[in-house]
Amino acid sequence: MKSLFTLLFFLLATLLYSQNIQFQYDTSGNRTTGNIITTRSSETTQKKSSSENYTEELSLGEIKVYPNPTKGLLKIQIPNIESKPILYIISIDGKVLSKIQLRNNFENIDITSYQKGTYLFRIINASEEKVWKIIKE
Description:
Layout: H1 2-16, E1 17-25, E2 31-40, E3 43-48, E4 64-66, E5 73-77, E6 86-91, E7 96-101, E8 106-110, E9 117-125, E10 128-136
Antiparallel strand pairs: 1-2, 2-3, 4-5, 5-8, 6-7, 6-9, 9-10
């Protein structure tokens, strides 16, 4: 009986008060902002969080990876490249397909030999990292 009461209490608490986080993404699939939506019984309130909380810029500045989706030729633009960040191309099942050391502010990456599907581009600079979801058509 006590466990039934506890279960009923938690179910009612989640119905009366819950939170949901919604993210917005740019055309490349990168998360740009997030909204925290708090629901209390029948009223819904929205708190807009600052984009700083969800911006994943590295100390290199704003990194651009385009076009996405792609037929196979991608461009990576890094404005402040002083160190040599590393790009990992990862399949959706987690296998590292390629490791490339980025040396220039503008790099062309060729993935035409890869099958159609979704890939992750992970750029690591020192202890920072950013991940993009890339779609190969």
